Amino acid sequence: MKNKKIMVGLSGGVDSSITAYLLQQEGYEVQGVYMKLHNIIEGYHENNLESIEKVAKFLNIKYQILDLTKKFKNEVYDYFVNSYIDGITPNPCVICNRTIKFGAMFDFAMQNDCDYLATGHYASTDGKAVYEAVDKSKDQSYFLGQINKEVLSKILFPMSKYTKEQIREIALEIPQFKEIATKKDSQEICFVENEYIDILKRHVNIEQKGDTLDEDGNAIGHHKGYMHYTVGKRRGFYVHGAHEPHYVKSIDAKLNTITVCKKDRLAIKEVDLKNINMFIDKSSLDCTVKLRYRSYQVPCEVIINKDKKTAKIILKEVVYGVAHGQIAVFYDKDEVIGSGEIVKVTQ
Predict the structure, then answer these.
(1) Measuring CA to CA, which of 116, 171, 244, 254 is 20 to 30 A from 126?
(2) For 224, how many CA atoms within 13 A lie in the half-sphere containing its CB?
(3) pTM (2 d.p.)
(4) How far apart are CA 169 and CA 301, in angstroms?
């Protein structure tokens, strides 16, 4: 075991720091890598690297800085911005995991003659599939649904067996880690400090008043600009004479309109997908699906088309407010068996 080299993706937070610590305790030869992805938040890299320096010094390990700013901008950041411009709701963390963390960073680890790459994700893998973590409140298996299954045999997730509270307790017992242990959790999207709207304002005029429509296409109110809204949102637009809550049902970026309805009209029974990524080789599945990160698993049937790139989900329970651009992740109990990007919903 002692001759096994492992690269740990270090972020400056408690999860990745304890990941390195636990693996070293197990006998791995640990080294670190910090990915430089963007320059959007002032002091972001300086604060992270200060924490990483302390961890590396305590563990007596080397770390490298991997500059992926150009790749991140082209493949994650621009995708995020352009998705909202096109009127769809992106999931940049899923794309980042596929192309950056378990794409470019994985390649970097292998190029440095490491046997494994480890990260602080709350998920599990047996080298063949991805599974939910013990701590369901922190589970990140959803975000791994699009990664290449070929990398799994070289990936370790030490956080899989722990709760977040246990990780903080381990860190608090180590004097050099106490400051890291009390750091706030990083935001879900690393380059969004407060609201996603703040990012869009850097690139486009989002304050463009438009019509709020009913399902028949009649103008029944107004809104402040379509990029302020996602499917299922119930506030921030005006409907003449409304006595019941209305929700965004769809967005038309070209016409700068949003269509709204009452909650029962958000109900979805079928979902079409593209960019299918499977961890098992089946064309028809009886399983469950998450249609967004903060949602529960819903029983469904998944039919993979002959091209193996597209699929249809037939839901066995009604789901409300499904947004184009989000990722549908298929589960067999706690095992991730595949995923795809939502391109169409049917009532």
Answers:
(1) 171
(2) 8
(3) 0.94
(4) 42
Domain with CATH 2.30.30.280 in the chain: 205-261
Q: Transcribe 139-166 into DSSP letters.
A: --GGGGTTS-GGGGGGEE-GGGG--HHH
Which CATH number is 205-261 given? 2.30.30.280
Return the residue matching tokens 């017992």.
173
Distance between CA 174 and CA 177 in Å, rounded? 5
Evaluate whether the domain defined by 5-181 bears CATH number 3.40.50.620: yes
Whole-number pLDDT of residue 276: 97
pLDDT along the chain (347 residues), means of 10: 85 95 96 95 89 95 97 97 96 97 98 97 96 95 97 97 95 90 82 92 95 96 96 94 91 97 95 97 94 93 96 96 96 97 95
Catalytic residues: 96, 190
Spatial distance between the Cα atoms of 214 and 265, rounded to a whole number of angstroms? 11
Say how far apart CA 9 and CA 17 lie, in whole Å: 9
CA dihedral 311, 316, 318, 322 (to 10 degrees): -20
